[in-house]
Amino acid sequence: MKNLLFLVFSILFSNNILAQGCCSGGSGSPIAGGTSQGVLSEQQAEVAMNFQYVNSHKFLKGDKPTMDFLSNFNTKYLYTRIAYGVTDRLTMSIESGYFFNKTQIAINKKDKEESKGIADLIIFPRYKVYEHNTEKKRDEITIGLGYKIPLGKYLDSTVVYTDPKGKNFFTPKPPAVMPTTGSNDFIFYAFAFRGYPEKKFRIFVTSLYIRKGWNPLGEKFGNYGSVSLFASKTILKKLGVTLQLKGEWIDGFQADKSADDMLARYNIDVNSFGSKKIAIAPQLNYSFGDFSFYALSELPLYQYVNGTAIASQYLFTLGAAWRFFTVKQSE
After folding, report:
1. 3-state DSSP: the chain helix, strand, coil percent, rounded to 5?
2. Tens digit of pLDDT for each residue in 180-191?
3. How far does Cα 213 stand from its chain's mean position?
4. Whole-model pTM?
5. Nearest alpha carbon to residue 125 among 47, 38, 223
6. Are 78 and 100 in contact (CB under 8 A)?
């Protein structure tokens, strides 16, 4: 179960980076990208990394495609997590990520806005509140409460005009290309697992809610929620396949300034925030000793956005984790 569940959180958070874009506002970086699940064993540690690639040529107005927006949006993101089992019920983790790029390209395919850099720091304890195991069934319920601290840029500008005297004029970059939203957020997580060891089959449910805070610019990006159902089967001794069905939603944008001020000052269309999505995600996981490797892709089934915004299209994640005990275990 531990190796299988290595890949859960990358799916849960993956589309958070695609929430809204361009003159709309991005929801910032994914707060996790390759893991979380139940808990580790006592004195067990984990080092995990994954690489996520996002590319979209799809843009929506409501749930209808529109060509009058952008030509492309893409990101490359590296996520790292270090976790430790304090007890057999409590696991603590520190997580962060780095964007190699967040790029959007205009309709003319020449003009582009982009940024890169460190994203957020996440402190994320998880606690197993229930466990019951028999020969035929294994049950577990885990809850988590995390806190996200922004480390990267949430406001930057680009030169739009240079006058004959050499003076530059700037405009704010859209939030969709910023590594973070600049707010401190709370993360609420729940995980319920049912396994059938004899059949090598597992089902589990996860729910996630991110309560977004206000950033120093007087902006509050939409709260995020998702619910996912997973079914998993071990088909070979070390190879597992998983299928996820996910529903997610993102709330609208709030600001302490008028809509006109937000558009002029920060390149934000306050009406183009918020979305709903249903998606499936096939996943492969391979275990080798203390190491786990996985790959996954997300396939949207239905999407709806408020206003006009970037939609999910291509999303791929590759990752690896190393789990080990910090002290020698007794036989």
Report:
1. 10, 60, 35
2. 999 999 999 999
3. 17
4. 0.88
5. 38
6. yes
DSSP labels, 298-325: -EEEEEEEEEEEE---EEEEEEEEEEEE
Return the CA Rg of the chain. Answer: 21
Q: pLDDT-derived band of residue 24, with 50, 70 and 90 as boundaries?
A: very low
CA distance 59 to 62: 10
Tokens standing for 7?
């890949």
Distance of alpha carbon 94 from alpha carbon 125, whole angstroms = 9
Q: What is the DSSP string of 245-303?
A: EEEEEE---EESS-HHHHHHHH---TTS--EEEEEEEEEEEEEETTEEEEEEE-EEEEE
Q: Is the dihedral of CA 24, 178, 82, 299 positive or negative?
A: positive
Q: Name residue 157's amino acid.
A: S
Would you list the DSSP string of 144-189? EEEEEEE-S-S--EEEEEE-TT--EEEEEPPGGGSS--S--EEEEE
Structure tokens at 200: 């090598």
Q: If 0-12 CB within 10 Å is exposed, 13-18 middle and 19+ buried, where does residue 135 land? A: exposed
